[in-house]
């Protein structure tokens, strides 16, 4: 919020610099986001008195000799301004001067005539008509004759001022005004607050037939209306125009300016209706009918619903409550009678209407944050006072006050000094507490430890009890008084991650050791991401949780699978020319529940590997490493029905017979549709995997029992087998192990195909480890085992020894 | 005889000096110590020596033999040494050739920071609780004392799902779940994903927070600062200090923003701290008694402090990352830096 320094000074005798005030405000909870020095860009621009003017023939230039006081009483400056005259007082930017917009002025000849600077227009100083009269005249700024040559121009035109751009926290809507900030300034500087005048005199006149009614008190708990007659629409006084301009508002007319002024000064949005435009002399505050229309001041038309609050006359909406007036009852130059509105509207309703219609205003911004009824009353009184002060209308006795009955006093409660200090952890002396609360306009009586407190009416944020008072005290007393203590009264506790959390860390560590980089991807994506993976329309993964109000369609589906996310980041990496990579993420997937029950969140482990060096078996190696770390025995089963994986190069991961995940090469038909270079080999080597993390962990053995090492040596035998091409390595290994209990390891070390073996057959060579149980193995024992194994293999798989 | 020995001794000395290979050395052995070598010759010649001189001459020959053997031993050791050196030279590699890599993966910077923070607080006795990402109004707002008409409940800021479920906007809801399940003393961290309808250079619709909560007897605002001092000193630098300034959160009262003195410039002012000497790192405060009461904890007996840290913000500060988007792009060149 923008607060001019000079305006603040109307209410508080500020005896600190703008920078010091910035610090003070910061320490009591009002961060000044920017301290704008109005004349900060202007230097070495002074009042010049034009002593002589000499026209240069054939040009539009005039050679002036000017008096700039201490800077020289006979400086030659050439100007092209048509309005220069002898005796004129005007700003001169001297050699080395700076002007707004980073403009630098230097002495240099104009068409060969020496000129020691530049005389300026109001615009060149950043002024407008509201900030300084005559500022928008074409040509030089004509200053009053009583200005002293050589004086810094900033003092003369009021640019020796600051604007505080203050951020106000959501709990302090009472500070959304100059007066609100002034109250805080007065408190923090311990100065008196000079309230703006709110007195006015009503005439006996009433407006016959005028009626105001609130039909929706839940959305409009307070509505004040006051009729003003005999309006003379005209210009506003200079002080009002200047203050409005400092806050970035243009002056329109006295009546409109009063409403804006009260908005800025008091924080109460005001509205003025042209009373002659009100049909049936009625104001009715009600919910709009569905489909009802209104055209607002800015000539936009809106179709409303019963969720929107409108101000109506006898027949039609005349204002969109709290947001903008209607075009049909707008104040014009011809207005002679008006009705002031000062109201409190429910902040969430204003916010929702404003968002829904995409229509906002300074008023709606205030209402959204919240207005107290004290401010509503004060705003109306101030507006009427200004009507009187500006002498632009007759204040009638037709005043209306529709109230839903909220109390008209500040919150009253008792609080314990000891508990205030107990919250803070320090001893703030009682008199300091009392002084601070009184400075903040709390009415406080002390009886020993007990404080009898009445909060100011505008402090609707104050809740009954000590915590709010503790905050008020410490922000004024100063946070530097807090003495850090290290949980001195807390019970000693043991802490740290639990076993499951530690296992997750370990999972990540194992994957890192396998060369996989951890990723974080968004929890939501689009239906099209599932389409890209060819997930069938009737697949269970298509039953998704949808975000009702997504930022975009692209981020609207709570993901049922990590695979699309993993594929997306693999593709993004390939697009950037990162031709190889290994990626993983452990993160939730989301499954809808029936009957509005809590949806399920399941952690999944997703991974992707891409690049020339990757193949099915590099990925399988990682999966097995993971299993080994948690003492899990994984089996694989061909996965032919996973839409996004190659049917011949993919596998389900089985653990004790349960499918816990799947991995494999990206399906050719999915790869073909990726927006990647078709000829890059790396692009055709993308592998994806996804494991149900909890399911995997449910099989893991966490307690470890040592198994004694066999005192007898192991025996290793090689065995080459000839089998049909279709016989899998896994089936051979299973049968080898099954045939003999002493087999503890089987490892494939060679595959051979060739003429010797014959068409459609292959030779597979295994290294088989036999571990003795209770006595050393003799060669004939092992021969017996081999015979048994061969017998089993021949019977089950038709394998022959080579 | 003696003359012959002396001549041989001279010859030996010469030959020794010329030995530069195992072949030379073997020849030397053959020449002197072999079956047909000079010493064997001498021994044979001993028969021609006068009988009384024989023992003395025998000793001379023997001494010579010992001398030769010693020389041979020295030389053969030297030869072995030389050969070893030659072999080592031949086997030497260019140690600046690229390594045969076993690719090493990296944890994400958010995980690194998260773990670092957990470690600090674990040392103070904090447990780690991870609540659900899909929440209800009650846990995310109502019981945290967020007023019914508070803007944060708007569709504008909160993602809503079907049946009034929503994506948690803050990990603060974890406080409620912990306090429902456990009575004081409580020291807990709630790290996790949170979601807000916001997306630009400084906002991601999904980000991570870590909530901290202490509930016990006599916990004060001073404890919050003391505890956070220890935290930031371990996380950033032992010289870092905290500064509290007033703020507003519905679930704490008083509420504070916590700044740390800039660890880049030690508070002198630099671009990281925007020349203020301070960096905003987290928010916190004394737990609102209504929040305690909402969880059945007697606020006249117990008090609490709570804080919330943006994990992305800390990671960005610590690693000098200037765009939050980088954290979710997962570019391997980025990931490998951590």
Detailed description of the structure:
Chain A has 20 helices and 37 strands. In chain A, the strands form 9 sheets. A 7-stranded mixed sheet of chain A has the order 24-28-29-33-32-31-30, sandwiched between helices. In chain A, a hairpin with a 5-residue loop joins strand 14 and strand 15 (301-303). Chain A is elongated, with a radius of gyration of 42 Å. Helix content of chain A is 26%, strand content 28%. Chain A folds into 6 domains: 2-38 and 162-189, 2-Layer Sandwich (Phenylalanyl-tRNA Synthetase, Chain B, domain 1), CATH 3.30.56.10; 43-157, Nucleic acid-binding proteins (OB fold (Dihydrolipoamide Acetyltransferase, E2P)); 211-403, Phenylalanyl-tRNA Synthetase, Chain B, domain 3; 412-477, Phenylalanyl-tRNA Synthetase, Chain B, domain 1 (2-Layer Sandwich); 499-698, Bira Bifunctional Protein, Domain 2 (BirA Bifunctional Protein, domain 2), CATH 3.30.930.10; 715-801, Ferrodoxin-fold anticodon-binding domain (Alpha-Beta Plaits, 2-Layer Sandwich), CATH 3.30.70. Chain B has 2 domains: 2-91; 109-335, Bira Bifunctional Protein, Domain 2 (BirA Bifunctional Protein, domain 2, 2-Layer Sandwich), CATH 3.30.930. Helices cover 42% and strands 19% of the residues of chain B. In chain B, helix 1 (2-18) runs antiparallel to helix 2 (22-33), helix 1 packs parallel to helix 4 (54-91) and helix 5 (109-123) packs across helix 10 (311-319). The longest helix of chain B is centred in the first third of the chain and has 38 residues, at 54-91. At the A-B interface, helix 7, helix 10, helix 12, helix 13 and strand 24 of A face helix 5, strand 1, strand 4, strand 5 and helix 8 of B.
